[in-house]
Structure formats: structure tokens, C-alpha cells
Amino acid sequence: MGYFGRAKLATLSLAAISLEVRQLFLLAIPIMLTQVVQRLISTTDTLMLASYDTDALAAVSLSQSPYLTVLFFGAGISSAVGVFVAQSLGADAVDEHDIALSTSMGLWVGFGVGLPFAIALQFTEPLMLAIGQDRDLSAAAGAYARIFTPILPVAICYGVLTQYAIAVGRPRIPLFVIAIAALANVFGNYTLIFGNFGFPELGLKGAAIASLVTQTLAFTVMLLVVTNYAPLKRFRVLAGVLKPDGARLLEILAIGIPISLMIVLEVAFFTGGTLLMGYFGATALAGHHIVMTIAATTFIVPASIATAAGIRVGLAKGAASPGGVWTAGVTSIGLGACIMASVAVIFVLLREPIIGLFIDESRPENAAVMQMGMTLLLFAAAYQVFDAVQATASGALRGVKDTTVPMQLAAISFWIIGCPAALILGFGLKLGSYGVWAAFVIALSAAAVLMLFRFSKVIPAAAMENPDAKSDPDQAESVEFQM
């Protein structure tokens, strides 16, 4: 870690940590709630389509898989914009032009990334047929995609505006917007899927139209807020949108693409794990699906703290505050680890009632799935802290624009360590589903160790890069940011 890293760790004051925890919560809690509402939108879609036609639900699931993969990729671009804005905002002399430039060029990049994929996804039906999917299911998935996927560039640009709002200290705005979108989505589904209020019954196509309208509404409302709400309007982020800046575009891509790849690498690893679970039978796959749903829900917490960490570290970096950079990074990792340690304990102690929320344990035919879910939840408990550490450490590293090496470390953890471990343990040692989940623990443990090592090397050095630092490097401080 070096002398500076050891000194910072030793001199973190309780006051600085308390202040930083407060600031992290002010950012992270609205981000968490936004993610929860977003998940509720997906759940609402699932429930309403399932009650209408299970084949339609299957088609939507098939169609959205490639769409969501691209959307995850776009999330990296959005995160990069948030870091640029935070560093500009943290400076003594706030560079409003630079904030506007980063946001407007982020919109360019988001639209540029989304457009070709939106066009490509118009060919969802032949794509699904090419990989061996059922012909009728592929046709239905293609029909849904042709209506819904053109919104992809707008969805990524919505993410850019969301990150801008969070970075300038208004994380409740995206929550407000997504809440409006959620209500619109329920109304749209009820109206267009089932044919209520005098509208025709459109079924699957109605669901696609409702999703299209919902995403368009979310972007429109966010755009109106950004251009009219005083705390966001002051930076005039659309003023230069018609004047592309090649240098900033390349900077955003240089920071954002590695973040995007890191997200895709992790998602693909766990998706691959789901495919492997299919080899061990329906019971294993059902238990896996239940526990992955639970784990994905709890991951909202460290993911939100990681986003907040990137903003907080970026603010401190822009403010040339060595103590602030270190305090924000260390506190975010500690906060995430402590919260998820509590979650792990809950998983262990309450695993039976937790799994029982998803399955009727009174039915004898569900006993095997119940037992499988309870066992796999122990594996999930084992990696909660590791997952929190790797997520928050990588989030803090984004705050100093260190994204390429963390992406490489993610590739090593999930694909060079985790993937072979899953194959060896699951198939070679014949541990089956337990072997695959043990590999999840191994991969996330490796990611946590590697990200912590990178954090210990980069964050202290980045904190000391500016020779005009505001604070004494031996006095940890926290840059307070009003919400």
C-alpha cells in the first residue's frame, strides 16, 4: 500500500467517517430506491403478461435478453459521465462548461452506441432462429423487438441524464421520474395488453407499445427536469449538444467502455452459470433461479453504494482533496461490506422462510427444490461480503477514472478463475450445482482481493497527484456535498 496508504488508514477520524457515511447514504438510498422501482416495473410486466399468456411472457423474456445486454453496456457509458461531472463539480472553481460538455458528449456517445444495436435488434427473429429457438417463439420475440427496441438509444441517453442528476447532488430526481414511469407502465399494460378503457386488446404488441411509451415518457420527463429545474438547469447541459467535441467523446469512451465490459463480463459469467445449472436437472435449475433472484435483489445495495462511491471519490478528486479521496473510498468499501455481512447472516439464519416466500413448502413435490434453494442460499451468503467489496472498490476506482485495469481484473476473476472452477468442481469433481455455486464464491473472492489490491495502489497515488492539494495528506477529511 505504501506509506501514504498506511498513513491514511491510520488517521481516518471517526468524524470524517461519520460525515462520509452520511453523504454516501444521501446518494445511495435514492439510487437504491430507483433500482427497486425499476425492478418493480419488470415484475409488473412479468405478472401482467403471465396472467394474459405465458407464451407471450416467454417471447418477451427471449427478446429482452439481447436488449438488456446492450443496456448494461450503455450503463458503463453513463457511469463515466457521472465521474467526469463529479470531478468538474468538485473543483474550487466549478467549471460549468466542462460539466455541460461531459453530459452533452455523453448523450452523443449513448445515442451512437445505442443506434446500431437498435437497428441490429430489428432482426431478433432470425437471430433466435439461428441459435435454435422455437419458430413460433422466435416470431413472437421478433414482433415484440420490432416495436420496442428502437427506443434503445433513448434508454441509454436517459441513463446519461440520470448520472448527471446524481453527480450534481440530485439523486431524488431519477427516483421521481422512474416512479412516474412505473405508474404509466402499469396503466399502459392494463390498457393495451387486455384492451381496457376502449382500447383494442393487443396482447404482446400492447406490452411492447406500453414499454416503448414508458421509456419515452421517462426520458422526456428527465429532459424537462434537466432543462427547467434550477439546480440542474444552471449547467445548460444541452447548450453544446449540437457541437461535437471529439476529444471529450474519446475520453468518455476510454473511461466508459472498460466499465461497460466489466459489467458485461460479470453478467455473462453468471448467465453462463445458469446455463450450466441446466445440466443438473429441473430441481437444481429451479433452486438456482430462486436464489439468483434473491441475490440479484440484495446486490442493489452494494451496487448503489458503488455508484455513490464513484461520485464521492470524483468530487474529492476534483477538489484536490487527498484525505477526501481516501476517506470516500475506504468508507464506501467498509459500509458495503458491513451491510452485506448483515445480509449474509440473515441468509443463514432465515434461509427456510426466505426460500418459502418463493415456493409452497407444504406441497411434497416441492421439497427437493426447497432443500436445493436453502443450500444454495448458504453459498450466496458466503459471497455477499466479497461481492460488496469488489463492487464498491471498483466504484471508488471509477471516481479517479481508473477503469481499464479493473476491467482486466474482472476478466481474470470471472473467466480465468471462475469459469474453469465451475467446470472442474461441477463436472470434473462431480459436485454438480454445488460446484457451480462454489465457483461463484471463488470468482467473487478473487475479484474482491484483486480490486482491493488495485485500490490500495491507485487511490493513494491518485489522491496525491495534484501538487496544489487543499489538505495536509496526513489528515483524512471528507468533502461534504449538499443534497
Structure notes:
With 483 residues, the protein is mainly α. It folds into two domains: 30-244, no CATH class; 257-469, no CATH class. The protein has 18 helices and no strands. It has helices at residues 2-11, 14-52, 54-90, 96-120, 124-130, 135-148, 152-167, 172-192, 204-228, 230-233, 246-277, 282-298, 300-318, 322-349, 351-356, 367-398, 404-428, 432-463. Helix 2 (14-52) packs antiparallel against helix 3 (54-90) and helix 3 (54-90) packs antiparallel against helix 4 (96-120). It is globular, with a radius of gyration of 23 Å. The two termini are 33 Å apart. The relative contact order is 0.13. The model is unreliable at 1-10 and 467-483 (pLDDT under 50).
Alpha-carbon Rg, integer = 23 Å
Task: Give a quick account of the main beta sheet: strands, pairing sense, barrel closure.
Answer: none
Roughly what fraction of the amino acids lie in strands?
Answer: under 5%
| Chain-averaged pLDDT | 89
Quantity of strands, as a count: 0
Helix content: over 70%
> Structural class of the helices, strands and pairings?
mainly alpha
The global form is: globular
Unreliable spans: 1-10, 467-483
**How many domain regions?**
2
In DSSP terms, counting alpha (H) and pi (I) runs of 4 or more, how many helices?
18
Measured distance between first and last alpha carbons: 33 Å
**Helix-strand pattern:** HHHHHHHHHHHHHHHHHH
Write the layout of secondary structure elements.
Elements: H1 2-11, H2 14-52, H3 54-90, H4 96-120, H5 124-130, H6 135-148, H7 152-167, H8 172-192, H9 204-228, H10 230-233, H11 246-277, H12 282-298, H13 300-318, H14 322-349, H15 351-356, H16 367-398, H17 404-428, H18 432-463
Helix pairs in contact: 1-18, 2-3, 2-8, 2-13, 2-14, 3-4, 3-6, 3-7, 3-11, 3-13, 4-7, 4-11, 5-6, 6-9, 7-9, 8-9, 11-17, 11-18, 12-16, 13-14, 13-16, 14-16, 14-18, 16-18, 17-18
